[in-house]
UniProtKB/TrEMBL annotation:
SUPFAM superfamilies: ATPase domain of HSP90 chaperone/DNA topoisomerase II/histidine kinase. This is histidine kinase. GO terms for molecular function: ATP binding; phosphorelay sensor kinase activity. The chain crosses the membrane at residues 141-161, 173-193, 205-224, 236-255, 261-280, 292-314, 320-343. Residues 465-563 form the Histidine kinase domain. Pfam families: 7TMR-DISM_7TM, 7TMR-DISMED2, HATPase_c, His_kinase. Gene3D superfamilies: 2.60.40.2380, Histidine kinase-like ATPase, C-terminal domain (3.30.565.10). Keywords: ATP-binding, Kinase, Membrane, Nucleotide-binding, Transferase, Transmembrane, Transmembrane helix, Two-component regulatory system.
Length: 565
């Protein structure tokens, strides 16, 4: 095979046939890259059997405009192919451009071919008989189908996974796989066999697909390698590329395909950055995943082989093309495995966080109970002991009863496991009754308490959530009256849950002071603010205060049924 550059762009077949400017090529392949001028090739067949059916194949799907002149006994048969011809191409249904040799073909003369391509003119010319043609076609179908199937399976699996766990890295990986599929569809030519009507369009815009694939790789690299925190300088370069590639793609689509080809050429920068990330990550032991390292090595091999093929060092055979396709699939699979590893890490981290949460929840209970117990010492026990001291000399039986009430009350508060966070409302009311009897002993004929509890009510509440409300009602409502007062405790089961109310007929509260009661202050002791905060944390509800000056106060809260432990 020989090559001639048509610098004028006006040479005809007659001019070429008599030209002595042809230069011999090393074999049946061309290693010409992008050429601004039209090229002519002169091909001579060494072996030909006129009794067999033969096909001429040219394994490059990215030609823009090619005309082949096949010599016959009388003249030349002209065949056209390339994406410029779209559906008017003369090629037959095969992976690469292929033409059936006419029966009156003269194999003693040269075949001439003139071509133009933005994407380089590396190709191998082959003459195959009918059996080899069909066999090779079937091999291409099976090889391409399996590899396309692998990428399609990876795409849909990770897309579903990413949507299910709401992880953007998986979605970015799917973008990478999708563009890889498009790129391989353009370079392998497998779609030619399917009769897909946009096959020529995919070939024509393959440089744009390459730009899109480079963009997808950059986006995916930033996500999977966490470059923003691990490699900030490289991340800055990747951000520039994320801006650069879409601009180049727009220039390619709407201004000039030459600019697009240049943009695709800059894609090599992506792989340089990829190499730096992996080199630094492995050296600094930031990246240890064997899947990521495998994917990196495969990408490096693919880039080296692809460039060797582009520059003509290696022939652009269909075996080499499918080998690169195979490396793409294995690399994508390695990335998928690394993403699966990420899922496992996330699950393990979730479990660790769950254990931490449970431990912190237990610890918070311990702190909460310790806080409550500490608050009880100065506010209740001291006063009770003073009462017992006052009556012990006059009425030992009454003093003994008070000691018994205090003992039961303290045992109810302190003598239980910290994990027992909730108690039945009846246990809580028992603590209230012990407290009330002590207060009634301190202030005889001053305090009266009514219990309006729905019979058979099955309700659990946090410890010490009702007793402090009763304590506030007695201390700030009843005891400030000059006459006796009554506290009423209600527990009602409603359709939506339970309603707990502590109501007194004491002095009441000013409207301006009601909201201050729910504001936390370290000097307020257990206070309504603390109870309100606990209710918000436990049920998402809060205390409601209804009061009228001189008539009394009612404090109530809801316990939703669905929040019952």
């Amino acid at each position: 095979m020989e090559i001639l550059k048509d610098n004028s762009g006006k040479m005809t077949l007659s001019d070429v046939k008599v030209s002595d400017q042809f230069v011999a090529l090393p074999g049946n392949y061309s290693k010409a890259g992008y050429s601004s001028v039209r090229l002519w090739f002169k091909i001579k067949l060494n072996r030909y059997n006129a009794d067999e059916i033969h096909y001429l194949t040219i394994n490059n799907t990215l030609f823009e405009d090619v005309t082949i002149y096949l010599p016959t006994n009388n003249d030349y048969v002209t065949k056209h192919f390339g994406f410029a011809y779209k559906s008017n191409s003369d090629e037959i249904g095969y992976v690469y451009p292929a033409f059936k040799i006419p029966s009156h073909f003269d194999h003693n003369q040269y075949i001439y071919m003139t071509s133009k391509s933005l994407y380089g003119q590396n190709f191998i010319v082959q003459l195959v008989n009918d059996d080899l043609f069909r066999k090779t076609s079937m091999i291409n179908v099976w090889a391409g189908g399996i590899l396309f199937g692998v990428l399609a399976a990876l795409f849909f699996y990770n897309l579903v996974t990413g949507l299910a766990i709401k992880n953007k890295t998986f979605i970015k990986y799917c973008f990478f796989v999708f563009t890889t599929l498009l790129w391989n569809a353009a370079t392998t030519g497998l779609l030619n066999i399917t009769g897909f009507k946009y096959t020529h369009w995919i070939a024509e815009y393959s440089a744009g697909t390459g730009i899109l694939m480079s963009l997808a790789i950059v986006i995916f690299m930033r996500a999977i390698f966490q470059t923003q925190t691990r490699f900030p300088k490289i991340d800055f370069c990747l951000k520039l590329l994320i801006v650069y590639f879409p601009i180049t793609l727009l220039l390619f689509l709407f201004i000039s395909k030459n600019l697009g080809a240049f943009g695709a050429g800059v894609s090599s920068v992506v792989y340089v950055l990829y190499f730096i990330i992996m080199f630094k990550g492995i050296r600094n032991k930031i990246i240890r995943s064997p899947q990521l390292i495998t994917a990196w090595l495969l990408c490096i091999v693919s880039v080296i082989l692809f460039n060797l093929m582009v520059f003509g060092v290696l022939p652009q055979s269909y075996i080499m093309i499918y080998y690169l396709f195979f490396l793409s699939c294995v690399s994508a699979t390695a990335f998928a495995l690394s993403l699966a590893e990420i899922i496992n890490d996330l699950n393990e981290e979730k479990q660790r966080n769950q254990i931490r949460f449970e431990n912190s929840e237990i610890q918070s209970r311990q702190f909460e109970l310790a806080f409550i117990r500490a608050q009880m010492d100065p506010h209740f026990i001291h006063n009770t002991l003073n009462v017992i001291e006052g009556v012990i000399a006059e009425n030992k039986e009454k003093a003994g009863s008070l000691v018994n009430d205090l003992s039961h009350y303290l045992r109810n508060i302190f003598d239980y496991s910290n994990s027992e966070r909730y108690i039945s409302i009846h246990e809580e009311l028992d603590a209230v009754k012990f407290y009330v009897r002590i207060e009634q002993a301190r202030f005889p004929d001053k305090i009266f308490v009514n219990y309006d509890i729905d019979p058979g009510i099955q309700l659990k509440v946090p410890r010490l959530v009702i007793q402090p409300l009763v304590e506030n009602a007695i201390k700030h409502g009843i005891r400030k009256r000059k006459i006796a007062g009554t506290v009423t405790i209600r527990a009602k089961e409603l359709e939506h849950g339970y309603l707990i109310t502590v109501e007194d007929d004491g002095v009441g509260i000013e409207d301006a002071d009601k909201y201050k009661l729910l504001e936390y202050s370290p000097n307020k002791g257990i206070g309504l603010a603390n109870i309100n905060a606990r209710l918000q944390a436990e049920y998402g509800t809060q205390l409601q205060i209804v009061s009228e000056k001189g008539k009394g106060t009612a404090v109530r809260f809801d316990v939703p049924i669905k929040e019952q432990p």
